[in-house]
Amino acid sequence: MNLKYIRNFSIIAHIDHGKSTLADRMLETTHTIPQRKMRDQVLDSMELERERGITIKMQPVRMEYVITDDKLGIINGGKKEETKYILNLIDTPGHIDFSYEVSRALKAVEGSILLVDSTQGVQAQTLTTLNMAREGGIKIIPVLSKIDSPLARVDEVTKEVVELLNCDPNEILFVSGRTGEGVENLLQEIIKRVPPPVENYLGENVLRALVFDFKYSSHRGVIVFIRLLDGKVKKGESLIFSVSGEKFISLEVGTFSPEETPREYLEAGDTGYIVTGIKRPGIASVGDTITKEKNPLPALSGYMQPLPVVWASVFPEDADDFLELKMSLGKLRLSDSSFSYEEESSGSLGRGFRCGFLGMLHLEIITERLKREFNLMLVITTPSITYEVLLKNPSSNLGQVGKKVKIYSPYFFPDDGNIDTVFEPWVDLKIISPIKFIGNIMQLLFDHEAEIGETDNFGNNRSSISVKMPLRELMRNFFDELKSVSSGYGSISYEIDDMRKANVTRLDILVADEIVPAFSRVVSKRRAEEEAENVVEKLHSILPRQMFTTKIQGKALGRIISSRTIQAFSKDVTQHMYGGDVTRKNKLRDKQKKGKKKMKERGRVNIPQDVFLKMMRSGE
């Protein structure tokens, strides 16, 4: 097809700004999906996405839109000629955890819809993605959603967008994903404003295709989602991944409507998929480039391997499920190369895996998928970040700096006496909130050891704050607390910064005098007692009672700093007796007392899986 009739675009939006609903209306307007098959969030194929109302995996879709030339302002001697346009939409996640995937998807399009909720205004994550789009030279189309809402602040949010983009107010479009108002006009403006793709002709037998996502099929292997930049690809060709160097035969090529639809070939400008047949993890990755084996080309610029931000250890509740957990992680890795795992063992939890995630949402998604898709009962340790620790040389009395080690798990964090210096990662944080909440936010930032930078006002009553903060503090329930103090209006985006010195220590939680590695965490020394109190109190409230008295203790800085006791189940062993001498009852009570003492000495507390999950989540 002629490239001038193709438009490739994505939607930039914060979570819950109506991105998936707008995509639904586009599919309806272009008749891509029959009315009988339409449902809400049709592009969100995972049950977890539909349940949470967020986009987790990217989903491309090809729409065919027939329009008369006069609607585009094209005059053909008074005739109304119809033209078919191909609109390739990539529905991207809005959460900060998936910013790298979004950045690569933006490389696959020429235009983006900047979708702003008219009830909430510009959000921090929107700014981050917008900057990515601007750096890539992508055409931005500003659009306000939810204009039919009684809470809509159309005039106020329009001013925010005008100030943000430095654009003419007439360039801003208005839509309602719920009613479909303005969607037809938006499609026409996409055709007018977004430039068609351009092919850089590099000669015959040349192919360059950018991988912006992929998934795994147990029958067909890895299926890569690609944007063809140059050349043509068809079934049966010998291809190669530029970064991983893996060779494969294309088993099928096609486009998304939105289900996979096989085609004879794909050519420059197309967005589609290639079935690779590869069934090994770690081969396909977002941002890689596919070229022809006979004429390989270097990878497109900008490729990087996503680095884990949060670490947590995952153990099977039943030790016999270890191999099944290993197989399940391998299958998930085939469809999500951004999380990593390696085997580890713990004295009390047995064999498991230390896993790296892009953020807390990514961690929740992976563990929830393990539970749902593979029916596994898991023990998940408290999420942590990476620390660099300089150890004191044990053989020296001068305390000279010895070995430098990376610590991924709080359980392996050294004792204070063997630490010379600890370094931790910091983040550059951007917070956007209505001005009236700034006082509350400043107090919150002080509590989380933040360094406050510039504060800028934009729009009528919105403020943007630049902040530097330890990643440890960002993961300590900061986002939920920000939402609380800003009545839900605050939003954040962040980027990993450099490593700095940290004043931290390990907090261990003991249950019945035994350390539970899953509950160990690294905390600020100045907050050690407060953290210990909170964790012990929370565990005391959710841990089931046992047959013997159970102590829960928090240990840090070389001593016990918090303690609670769960009383044992009580049973009247003399309830079946009546009459007779009192010594008969005393004899039974003494026997029960000795049994409980013996049980306390030898007994172990079995902690249910839901306790580990509740301890991992905040607010439970």
Write a structural description:
InterPro entries: EF-4, EFG_III/V, EFG_V-like, EFTu-like_2, G_TR_CS, LepA_C_sf, LepA_CTD, P-loop_NTPase. One of its GO terms (biological process) is positive regulation of translation. The protein is an alpha+beta fold. It folds into five domains: 3-193, P-loop containing nucleotide triphosphate hydrolases (Rossmann fold); 207-292, Translation factors (Elongation Factor Tu (Ef-tu), domain 3, Beta Barrel), CATH 2.40.30; 310-380, Alpha-Beta Plaits (2-Layer Sandwich); 387-502, Alpha-Beta Plaits, CATH 3.30.70.240; 505-616, 2-Layer Sandwich (Alpha-Beta Plaits). The protein contains 14 helices and 30 strands. Strands 7, 8, 9, 10, 11, 12, 13, 14 and 15 form a nine-stranded antiparallel beta sheet that branches. Strands 2-3-1-4-5-6 form a six-stranded mixed beta sheet, sandwiched between helices. Strands 20, 21, 22, 23, 24 and 25 form a six-stranded antiparallel beta sheet that branches. Helix 5 links the parallel strand 5 (139-145) and strand 6. Helix 3 packs parallel to helix 4. The two termini are 56 Å apart.
CATH architecture of the largest domain: 3-Layer(aba) Sandwich
The residue fraction in helices comes out at 25-40%
| Global structural class | alpha+beta
Mean pLDDT: 82
**Biggest sheet overview:** 9 strands, antiparallel
Number of helices: 14
| Dominant shape | globular
Extended strand count: 30
What is the CATH level 1 assignment of the largest domain?
A: Alpha Beta
Low-pLDDT segments, ≥5 res:
395-400
Q: Return Rg in Å.
A: 29 Å
Strand content: 25-35%
CATH topology of the largest domain: Rossmann fold
Distance between the first and last residues' Cα = 56 Å
CATH homologous superfamily placement of the largest domain: P-loop containing nucleotide triphosphate hydrolases
The figure for the number of domains is 5
